[in-house]
Automatic annotation (TrEMBL):
Residues 146-227 form the DUF4371 domain. This is Uncharacterized protein. Residues 556-611 form the HAT C-terminal dimerisation domain. SUPFAM superfamilies: Ribonuclease H-like. It comes from Strongylocentrotus purpuratus.
Amino acid sequence: MCVAHQAKLRSLRNFNQAFINGVTGSALKKDNVVKHSRSEMHKKAIALSSRPKLTLDAIFKTTPIGKALAGASSEEEKRVSKLFDIAYAIAKEELPFTKYPVFVELEKKHGVPLGNTYTHEAKCSEFIGVIGDTMKSEMLTALKEAQYFSIMVDGSTDASVKEQELVYVHFVNDKTGEVQSNFFCITDVKHATAQGLKDGLDEIFADADMSLKGKLVCVCADGAAVNMGVNKGLIALLRKDHEMPWLIGMHCLNHRLELAAKNAFEKTYMDEISEMLLSMYYVYQKSPKRLRELRTLGEVMEEVVTKPEKAHGTRWLQHKSRALATLLRSYPVIIAHLESMASESSAADGARFRGYLQVLTSFKFVMHCLLFYVMLQPLAALSCNLQGESVDLMFAMASLESFHTSMQSLESEHEDIEDASELSKFLHDITFQDGKAEVEYKNVRLINVRSDVFTAFQNSRKIYVKKIRECVDARFSDFNSQLFQAFKVLDTNAWPRDKPSLDQFGHKELNTVFEHFKGLLQEVQPESIQMEWNSFKSYWNSSLMDLQSSDVWRAFVKVSTSKYPNLGLLIRVLLTFPISNAKVERGFSTMRRIKTDWRCRLNARTLDHLMRISIEGPSSTDFNPQCAVKNFFCTPRKPNVQPYLYQGSNKRPYPLDD
C-alpha cells in the first residue's frame, strides 16, 4: 500500500523508506511492524487507497479547479456558439465572408459578449466548414444505413470556367421511413467525358467510404450522349465496370418533356411567335426609357402592363407560357406604344417597329398566339408537376394521363372548349362576308382577316394537338414497359377493395421487378416474397386502407425489417427511384448565386459547404449550432491567441494569420 502511493508520501515529515524498499533480517520485528502501522505515513497510504478515483467528469464537478475550468469552458462554448450562428447566417443568406467581421462588431455594439478571438473572416470560412462537415456526416450516416440508393447527376460550368458535377442521392431513410433526396456533393471534373465522370463518381463515393456496387439502383441524368450513350455513356460504363446489369438509366422526365415540345413546335408558325416574344423582350429590356413610356401609357389607358418576359434561354415550359401570357395581357398597350415609336423614331427603328406591328396585328398571329397559349397550359402543368420535391413514378404516370385528357379536349370544336375560353370567345364572334370580316382583339383592329386564313387555322389546330401528343408519347414510351408498369403496385389508392381481387393482385408485378433486379436482391428468398406480400395486403386491408400511399409505405418501411424482411428489400428498390433532375437544376442555380464573378476563387470544398447550407440547412433562426461547436472543440487547432494589431493611427489592423 505504501509502495503504491510512495510518490505522494515522500512529502511527509516522518517519511521512512524502510517499508518501501523492504525489511529483512533482524529489522523484521513485530514492534517495527506495529510501529509502522500506527505511523502517519501508513495512515496516509490507507486514506489514499480508500479514496475513490475520480473520473474526468467527476473532477470537473467536484474539485474547485475542475469547477473553474468547466465554467470557463461553458462560457467559451456559449461565446463560440454565437459566432457559429453569425457564420451560419452568412452562409444561409449567401453573403460573402467579408460581412462576418461587420456583423460581429455590430453584435458587440449591441452588448453581446463575443470576445476578440475567432472574429476574422478566415474563421467564418472555418466555422462554415465545420457546419458543412457536420451536416454531411449526418446525411452520410442515414445513407450508409440505407439498403439501396440512386443518384441524380448533372454538369455545368461555374464562374471560374470550371466543369462542375453536381450529385444528389435518393434513398429510403430506414429510421423515418421517408424517401429522401439529398445534396451529396459538388466536385470539379478533370475530364467531362463518360470515363471522366465515372472516375469522379467512384472517387467521391470512395472518399465517403462507400461503394456503388451492390447498392446503386438507378442513375437519373439528362439525355446527353455522355450520360445515356448505349455503349460508352456513363451509365453503360457503370454497368460494365461495376458488374451491375440491373442498373437503370433514367432520362429526366422534365428534359424529355422539353424535347417533346421542341419537336412538336419546330418548323411551324409557333417558331415565329417565339421569335416575336424574344424581340418584344429586347425592345424593352435594353431601353429603360421605352419601358417607362410603356408603363405610363398603360396608366393612361387604364390597362394592366407587365414587362415582356424572356422566353428563350430558360429551361422549363412555364417560362414560355408566362412570356406569352404577358404579351396577351399587355397587348393593347404594346400595340399603342409601338405605333407611337414607329412614327417618332429614326428611319431604321421606325421601319423595325412597323414590321413588328405588321406581325402583331395580323389575324393569323393573334389566333395562333391564343392557340399556342392554350396548348402550353397542359404542357406547363405537366412540367410543373414533374418538378416537385417528392414526385415519384406513380404521380408522374397519373400526371401524364391528366395531360392526355386535357389535350383531347383541345381537339374538339372551339365552342366546347372550357380550358381555352379566351380563344373560344374570340373565334365564336367572327362572321365572314365575301371572305372578309372586321375583327378586333382587345380593341385593336386586326389586319389580313380572311376566310382562307381562318380555315387554314382550324385545319392546323388538330394537327398541332396530334403532333404534341405523338411527340410526348414517343419521349415517354418506356412508361409502357413491363418494369415501369410493375411500379403501379406502389399506388395503394388503386388497389382492389374486394378480397378475391386483392388476393390475386401484384404477384406478377413483383416477379417482374425481382427478375430485373435479381443481381441486386441476392439476399432475397423469392418464395418468401409472395407469402410476405399476401400478409402485408391483409394487414393493409384491415388497418391501412384509408391512408395515402406515401403514409402506407412509410409505415411499411418501419416494420419491414422484422415482419417482411424479403418484401421490404424489394419495395425499397421500387421506392428508390428518381424521375427528375429538376432538383439538380435548382442546385446549379444555387451554385451560380454563390460562386459569382466576385467569388470565382472559391475552392470546391468551400463551395460544397456553402451550397449544402443554402440548399438543405434550416433557417438562420432555427439553426442549432451545438453539434457543430462540439465538433469544432474536438478538432485540434491553433492556440487561442489574441489577434496582433499594428500600432499607429494610420495603419489598418491585420490579424496575425493574414
